[in-house]
From TrEMBL:
Pfam annotation, one family: DUF2189
Keywords: Membrane, Transmembrane, Transmembrane helix
InterPro entries xref list: DUF2189 (IPR018692)
Species whose genome carries this gene: Ideonella paludis
Name by which UniProt lists this protein: DUF2189 domain-containing protein
Transmembrane segments: 38-57, 63-86, 112-140, 211-240
Leader sequence residues: none
Origin superkingdom: Bacteria
Length: 260
């Protein structure tokens, strides 16, 4: 199966891009958001409401909030599927509305459902790991952001923060590499899940510098949105639309049949 998926991935090309191309993706993403703002802003409102709910549920258990927000970074690519479809329709000359983004959520395509379940399980696993690490090895309870700073980040003894950061990076890097173009590719073309994942890895390996810049932009802007919460209303759809252009700019899919 893996060999077949690898051959499927190699049946089409990956385009060369300059290092600063991620700035162009942001510009195109913003243009799509302004072209069809309603679906994007509604998605953003839903994400902001989810963040506010997470803050309420966590209460004075900041260790839980850290895990929830970390898990969000993992599952966000699949949650943005509807906005990839909006950008896809804009590129085809349509004027998509909220019904376009909602149609992408209909479980007609088992590939996207399976991918979503896998990302959800990964996010849940990291949330549990993060919470267990902080609860079990921090020198004192972590109930507030200041506690996290003093007890975990600036702890005079132990290496909880280093281990937490290292484990997070160890998980985040392959998840990013596996999803950066895979979900838009699955939405747009007829290709298997493994083939889409291998293609995503090819894009990252052939463009390490621009994709590292893109990852840094994603992280910085998402953290800004999380800190402000209301910032997610704009940042989430902006990054989602931009992510569609990452796929369209790096993957030459002319040899694959297009999904309707």
């Amino acid at each position: 199966m893996a060999e077949k998926a690898l051959q499927e991935s190699r049946s089409f090309g990956v385009r060369r891009i300059p290092v600063l191309r991620p700035l162009g993706w942001l510009a195109r993403g913003w243009k799509d958001l302004m072209t069809s703002p309603v679906p994007g802003l509604l998605h953003g409102l839903a994400f902001a409401a989810g963040a506010a709910l997470a803050i309420y549920i966590a209460g004075n258990r900041f260790w839980l909030l850290v895990g929830l927000f970390s898990a969000f970074l993992i599952v966000a690519p699949i949650l943005a599927t509807g906005l990839y479809q909006v950008s896809r329709r804009i590129a085809q000359g349509d004027k998509p509305g909220i019904e376009t983004s909602m149609a992408a959520w209909k479980p007609r395509d088992g590939r996207l459902v399976v991918f979503g379940v896998l990302l959800g399980l990964t996010g849940f696993g990291w949330m549990v790991t993060s919470a267990s690490l902080i609860i079990g090895f921090a020198g004192a309870p972590v109930n507030t952001p200041m506690d996290f700073l003093k007890v975990v980040v600036l702890a005079p003894t132990g290496h909880v923060f280093e281990v937490w950061l290292g484990l997070g990076a160890l998980l985040a890097a392959p998840v990013f590499a596996s999803t950066v173009v895979a979900i838009p590719l699955l939405l747009d073309r007829h290709i298997g899940i493994l083939g889409a994942i291998f293609t995503s890895w090819r894009v990252v390996m052939e463009h390490p510098a621009p994709l590292a810049l893109w990852a840094a932009l994603l992280l910085a802007m998402t953290l800004l949105g999380m800190v402000t919460v209301v910032g997610l209303i704009v940042i989430v759809p902006w990054l989602a639309h931009a992510s569609w252009h990452v796929y369209r700019d790096t993957v030459d899919t002319s040899g694959l049949s297009e999904r309707s």
